[in-house]
Amino acid sequence: MSVHVSNVTIKSEWTDYNKHLNMAYYVLVFDQAWEILLEKFNMGESSAKTSGMSTMVVETNTTYDSEVKEGEEVEVTLTYFDHDKKRLHYKLEMIEKKSKKLSSTIEMLSLHVDLNKRKVAEFDEERTKLMDNFINENKAKFKSDNLKFTGKLKK
């Protein structure tokens, strides 16, 4: 089970001489999907520009499980999400739509940052409530097996 985030068609400029998605673009696809979720939590680009609060990734673990080629469509899903007062822990999967094969996963740990001070900051009550409501609505769809960053949240 998971939460659908986006569908993406692989562009030719994202492929390499092996005729498949270049490793850097896997991360790009995941980053663009994560931005969709950040907007739900009032922490995306618009928040960074208006409030001076944003997130910054501090650790990742990426798997490349099955190649994806130009023109193929992938679905990006959120398979895990949690947070503490200052950190986000999440995992996304990329599934090739036609074959239904797992193409890639990325697990990330991000910090909430005050861009004016360039320092880690606690989430405010509004953002915490948005995240907690999202978790409560979707926790049955999350899976915590094979997580690399378990224990990095300070609850």
What do you see in this structure?
With 155 residues, the chain is an alpha+beta fold. The chain has one domain: Hotdog Thioesterase (Thiol Ester Dehydrase, Chain A), CATH 3.10.129.10. The chain contains three helices and six strands, in the order βααβββββα. The chain has helices at residues 23-40, 45-51, 125-138, and strands at 3-9, 53-64, 73-83, 87-96, 101-114, 119-120. Strands 1, 2, 3, 4, 5 and 6 form a six-stranded antiparallel β-sheet that branches. A hairpin with a 4-residue loop joins β4 and β5 (101-114). It is globular and about 45 Å long. The mean pLDDT is 96.
Total of helices:
3
Shape: globular
* Termini separation: 25 Å
Low-confidence segments:
none
Counted up, domains total 1
- CATH H-level superfamily: Hotdog Thioesterase
CATH topology: Thiol Ester Dehydrase, Chain A
Assign a percent range to the helix content.
Answer: 25-40%
Largest sheet: 6 strands, antiparallel
One letter per element, helices H and strands E, the order comes to: EHHEEEEEH
Q: Radius of gyration in whole Å, from Cα?
A: 16 Å
User: Which second-level CATH architecture applies?
Assistant: Roll
Proportion of β residues? 35-45%
- Tally the beta strands: 6
Give the C-level CATH assignment: Alpha Beta
List the main descriptive attributes of the protein structure presented here.
single chain, six-stranded antiparallel beta sheet, alpha+beta, Thiol Ester Dehydrase, Chain A, 155 residues, 6 strands
